[in-house]
Amino acid sequence: MSRRPEDLTESAMRAAERRFPELAAKAGHEAYKEALAKTGAVVVATSKGQLVKRMADGTTTVIKDLPPGKRVKVGLVLKRVKQAA
Asked: Does residue 63 contact residue 53 with C-beta atoms inside 8 Å?
């Protein structure tokens, strides 16, 4: 019998929440594999500073080199600046 939501203790809920990043990463990887396998589609992704196109057969094609990323401090809030039209 499964637990009802009101039966969860605070510690059980915190333990479940700690698994969210792991579960999200696993779900993303599975969706990626499924997109390649089921549809035979092309997936565009980044790899080693490049934008690449990956095919279902495992081949990759470099679309373009990407500029180096910018490092930011944790908690930094970025604001969008309106541009003149």
From this structure: yes
Enter the DSSP assignment of 5: G
pLDDT score at 5: 58
Q: Per residue in 21-45, is it b (16+ CB within 10 Å) or e — as a string? A: eeeeeeeeeeeeeeebeeeeeeeee
SS3 content of the chain, % helix, strand, coil (to 5): 40, 20, 45
41: pLDDT strictly greater than 90:
no
What sign does the CA torsion over 82, 72, 29, 57 have? positive
* Whether 66 contacts 51, CB under 8 Å: yes
* 25 membership: H or E segment, kind and range: helix 20-39
